[in-house]
Amino acid sequence: MMVAPITQNAKTIRVALLVCGTTIAPVAENFGLYPALFRTLLLQGLDELKKLKTVAQDTDLYLEGFDVREDVYPEELNDWDAIFISGSASNAYDDIPWINKLVQYVKDIPRGKGAPKVVGICFGHQIIGRAYDARVGKNTRGWELGWTSTDLTEIGQKFWRDTVMRIQELHQDIVHDVPEGFTLMASTSHTTNQSMISNDSTIVSVQGHPEFTGTIMKEFIKARTANGTFSKELSEASMAVVDNPVDNVKVAARLLEFALTGLDGGTF
Ligand SMILES: *[C@@H]1O[C@H](CO)[C@@H](O)[C@H](O)[C@H]1NC(C)=O
Ligand SMILES: *[C@@H]1O[C@H](CO)[C@@H](O)[C@H](O)[C@H]1NC(C)=O
Ligand SMILES: CC(=O)N[C@H]1CO[C@H](CO)[C@@H](O)[C@@H]1O
Predict the structure, then answer these.
(1) In angstroms, what CA-CA distances link 93 with 48, 124, 180?
(2) Extents of the domains making up the chain
(3) Helical spans, DSSP H, in the chain
(4) Residue ranges of the Glutamine amidotransferase domain (predicted)?
(5) Is the CB of 199 under 6 A from ligand 1?
(6) Do residues 205 and 119 lie in contact, with contact meaning Cβ atoms separated by under 8 Å?
(7) pLDDT one-digit tens code per residue, 177-207
(8) 12-260 in CATH: which number?
């Protein structure tokens, strides 16, 4: 693990990624593990913010992964602009030590000025749900898989600056409630709670995977169809639309902007 070269340089956006799982071999070989996927995504988001002139042209991104399954966490929370929580093949509701510790860690992250923003992706979204006392569990509708257009709520439209969020999905677990003090931002008919924001604008979560492209998604579909996780029908239906356009870069840009300002900055 690299040591964080944290500087006082305000032009570096600092993201600590809590790594909760691994990608599958064909994805790891070609695109890397979660830190590499998130670095690629957020760098694209940063380029978008530069194009929009939301950030200075010499703004940089520093992202470091912390393997929370091995009990590795950032040392100093205030070193970071945002704490991202990754996806995982584990169940967010399982009563096992590393997951229980992660839930407690998320609960304990301070929520004031100067504290890092918190961003949960897929499993990370569910960990945030659990940390704030929502019920988390399996969806009776089964897997939501591949390219999906999620409908944005009024607050979601303001935050994500669109009417839909098109994103790759890979989950059967869901957050059953919107926790108290949070607002729903996106829904599908399969999964109501696709994205949430805390009312104090310090925590945002997304059920889908902005770090997955269609190419990456295809590898997951192939591997998990081969091992019997996905039926042939589900696999074929997902493969048919897997290359549809997604909003990954826009989502990344908004998450970085959120990391820098949240609502206090008036950019909501
Ligand atoms: C959070 O915001 C939502 C939407 O604005 C509101 O319905 C809800 O009552 C708020 N919750 C709390 C605890 O303030
Ligand atoms: C199928 O593979 C995935 C990893 O791609 C793994 O998480 C899952 O447990 C496997 N399922 C079965 C039934 O082997
Ligand atoms: C507030 C809200 O929309 N809650 C929903 C979250 O998702 C579950 C399961 O899909 C719904 O039953 C809740 O109504």
Answers:
(1) 35, 11, 18
(2) 12-260
(3) 25-31, 34-51, 97-108, 123-131, 154-160, 214-226, 232-241, 248-260
(4) 76-219
(5) yes
(6) yes
(7) 999 999 999 999 999 999 999 999 999 999 9
(8) 3.40.50.880
